[in-house]
Design brief:
This protein is an alpha+beta fold. The protein is 54% helix and 13% strand. The chain is built from 15 helices and five strands. Helix 4 crosses helix 15, helix 7 crosses helix 9 and helix 10 runs antiparallel to helix 11. The protein starts with a helix and ends in a 6-residue tail after the last helix.
């Protein structure tokens, strides 16, 4: 039979992206993790999404250093100022990075602040400079920043809000809350989903009945009203950090039901397979059978569920904070920043206040692309 009759080229181990070129022996001698990595690298979008998310999460360790201003730093002279464009050329001459200063005037009819670029005021940016003081992770006193405005000048890359606070700096600070709430929430959800789903699928009977009725009761409540009611139940006198953990716990306790049912269905289908029966005959206990033999058999589904659940957690926190029932001041999240853009008139007059929605969309898309790549790489039935 010819290659044309087969409909596709025969498999060539040397064509695997990232595989060592040692012939067919490379595939036979490769470990499961090597095969997983080679498959994953074939997914270009997933690889790019992984790099983007890694850089984003690493930046959380240096939030205060990356932000030009402190989270709560105010400039009363620049309230609702538009973004300043970063420039490198002035009148045909190449310069170090700089911005033009503002020229502000009041509209005599509406008393609105109108800002214009003053091209006579060239304000060069400073790098690795001293600026607003902060406590790195609440422990180390410092004032070093990656970039600072010129002395006596300003640098508002994304504009300012109604109190004159730099929106870019607050966006950087908000990333720490919005991105970690997804990880903390999914840890709770994943643990509960695997635990109750595994018990329900493996033991069946009364255990299965109790778990499934509990899931049905939880899923019978509308998600958003349930979020709102539980968030509103958090005492207003709680410290903001406890409110943050309370929101995380709420998101995790509500989101585990879908994963639990998926785990239950997989365990029910696999517990009677020959490999599970063999493990049971040689004396393996239920915990070893479930976690050592059954769960790895559908790891691709678990990976996809996790990577899709994290953005749902981020969106949940953003929605609660946007409605004023999530993270509270002085903490900042992307949802808190979007709270200023609830009025359509504000969006029309000051469109830069909607900027926090951009990282939300970017992170959600990145997690979706990453989930697709991880699912394909972990699929044991996927052909090369």
């Amino acid at each position: 039979m010819s290659r044309r009759d087969l409909g596709r080229e025969p498999f060539d181990p040397d064509a695997i992206a990232g595989a060592p070129r040692v012939g067919g022996a490379a595939l036979a001698a490769a470990s499961p993790w090597q095969l997983f990595w080679w498959r994953f690298r074939q997914h270009r979008m997933a690889t790019a999404a992984l790099g983007f998310l890694v850089l984003l999460y690493l930046s959380l360790f240096a939030t205060e250093f990356l932000a030009p201003y402190h989270r709560d730093s105010r400039d009363p002279a620049h309230i609702l100022a538009p973004p300043q464009r970063l420039r490198f050329v002035h009148e045909g001459e190449l310069r170090a990075p700089f911005v033009y200063g503002y020229r502000m005037r009041l509209d005599p009819r509406t008393l609105a602040r109108l800002y214009e670029e003053d091209r006579s005021r060239i304000e060069p940016l400073r790098f690795f400079c001293h600026g607003d003081r902060y406590r790195l992770w609440g422990l180390i006193e410092a004032d070093l920043h990656l970039v600072c405005p010129a002395p006596g000048g300003s640098f508002f890359l994304l504009g300012t809000d109604r109190l004159g606070r730099d929106l870019f700096s607050r966006l950087v600070y908000g990333a720490r809350v919005s991105l970690t709430v997804g990880l903390c929430g999914i840890a709770v959800s994943f643990l509960l989903g695997i635990l109750f789903g595994g018990l329900s699928g493996y033991y069946g009977g009364l255990v299965d009945h109790a778990v499934q009725r509990t899931i049905e009761v939880i899923r019978s409540f509308p998600t958003i009203p349930l979020w709102l009611s539980l968030s509103a139940a958090i005492p207003v006198w709680w410290d903001p950090i406890w409110v943050y953990f309370g929101i995380t716990l709420i998101l995790g306790l509500i989101d585990w039901t879908g994963l639990a049912r998926a785990v239950r269905s997989k365990v029910l289908a696999l517990r009677e397979e020959d490999f599970a029966q063999a493990a049971r005959l040689i004396g393996a206990g239920p915990r070893r059978i479930v976690f050592r033999h059954l769960l790895p058999s559908f790891a691709s589904h678990l990976i996809a569920s996790v990577t899709l659940s994290i953005p749902s957690m981020i969106l949940g926190e953003t929605a609660l904070s946007f409605l004023g029932l999530g993270v509270r001041a002085p903490m900042v999240s992307w949802g808190v920043l979007l709270n200023d853009a609830q009025n359509i008139n504000v969006i029309v007059l000051y469109p830069w206040l909607v900027t926090p929605v951009v990282p939300v969309i970017a992170v959600v898309l990145a997690f979706n692309f990453l989930g697709d790549g991880l699912r394909d790489a972990a699929d044991p039935y996927r052909s090369w």
